[in-house]
Amino acid sequence: MNKIIEYLKTNDLTISTMESCTGGFVSNLITNIEGSSDVFKFGAVTYSNEYKIKLGVSKDTIDKCSVYNIEVAKEMAKAISLYTKSNFGIGITGKINREDNKNLFGNDNEIFISIYDSDKDIFYCLTLTTKHKERSKNKEYIYNNLIDMFEEEILERNQYGI
C-alpha cells in the first residue's frame, strides 16, 4: 500500500472505498500510512443493501444479480468514485464463508473486487474464493489480492505507458 499511496501522491490522484464484507479493513490499512490523508477521500462500510443503494448502487442490479456479484462491486467502485470525485474507487462485496438470509443468492465463499479508474472510465475486476476459516485471515487475503491487482493493472501499466 505504501507504493500505491506514493504513486497517488506523486500523480496528484485520489482514492475512495466502498467496502462490504471487509468492513473497512482496506480503509483502515490505507489510513495507517503516514500522509494518506493527501490522497484518501472517503471510506464507506455498506453492509446493508439500503446504504449501497443510497450511495449510488442500482437497486435493479442488486435485485437482478444479488448483492454478491461482480456487477455490484463495479457499481460500488464507480458510485464511490463519483460521490467523492476520486480518481479511483474500490468496491468490495461478497460472503466470507457464511450464509446471508437477507440475500439468498451467491456462493457463501466468493468475494468480488472492483477498482474503477474515473479518468479512463474503466474497471479492473477480480473474483476470489475465500481460503481460510478465520474472517480476519480472509480479509488479509482479499487485501493482498487487491494490492496485487492495483500494482499490476494500474502502477505497471502507467509505468510502461500501456
Structure in words:
It is built from six helices and five strands; from the N terminus they run αβαβαααβββα. The protein has 162 residues and is of the alpha/beta class. It has one domain (2-159): CinA-like (Maf protein, Alpha-Beta Complex). A five-stranded mixed β-sheet has the order 2-1-3-4-5. Strand 4 and strand 5 (122-129) form a beta hairpin.
Total individual domains: 1
**What's the CATH topology name?**
Maf protein
Average pLDDT for all residues: 90
Q: Which CATH class is shown?
A: Alpha Beta
Major sheet description: 5 strands, mixed
- Measured as a percent range, the helix fraction is 40-55%
CATH architectural label: Alpha-Beta Complex
Strand content: 15-25%
Could you tell me the radius of gyration in angstroms? Answer: 15 Å
Weakly predicted, low-confidence segments = none
CATH superfamily: CinA-like
Topology, number of strands: 5
Order of helices and strands: HEHEHHHEEEH
